[in-house]
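Researcher: Next entry in the queue.
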Amino acid sequence: MNKVIISVLGQDRPGILAAVTKILLERDGNVENVSQTILQNQFVGIFIVSVPDHIKTDALKDELNLSVKHLDLDIHVKQLVYDETYYPPVKSEPFIITTKGLDRKGLVAGITATVAYYGVNVTNLQAIFKGGDNPGDNIMIYEVDIPVDIDQQELEDALRTQAQSLGLTISIWHRNIFKAINRI
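Model: Structure for this entry, 184 residues:
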């Protein structure tokens, strides 16, 4: 079996997941991982799929695009290649960073530049911008892996300085503590 990455983008509507996964099932594909969300009115989905060796990425892309043509989606298919030499795994701990404040250009760029400088990997990012009567309710939630061998106090100080320069309030929690405190 080979693994492919499939990205699907387009105007949200019912049936997108059903249409894409139907073709994958018919080609004996197995969806191993999927991350799907709606951003404003746009469907965004990324799938990791194992497919039989005889299925070629270009042919799968063409077939998917043809089968969902009526949904007006943009589909990209790429062979998944593991290259540990590119970014070897490091021992890390999972943390949650939340920022809150008025929406403006540069918020994500500022926070991610700081974490990248310290070798912190962002594994998930969710931004919720409400605007309206309470623009201060805008929040960004960064799930990150912080290497165990860095000076965490130095990282936290740098993040607080960056957040202050961007007009944001910031909280940094180990994921286990964050989940325990925010459990519903």
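Model: The two ends are 40 Å apart (CA to CA).
Researcher: Noted, moving on.
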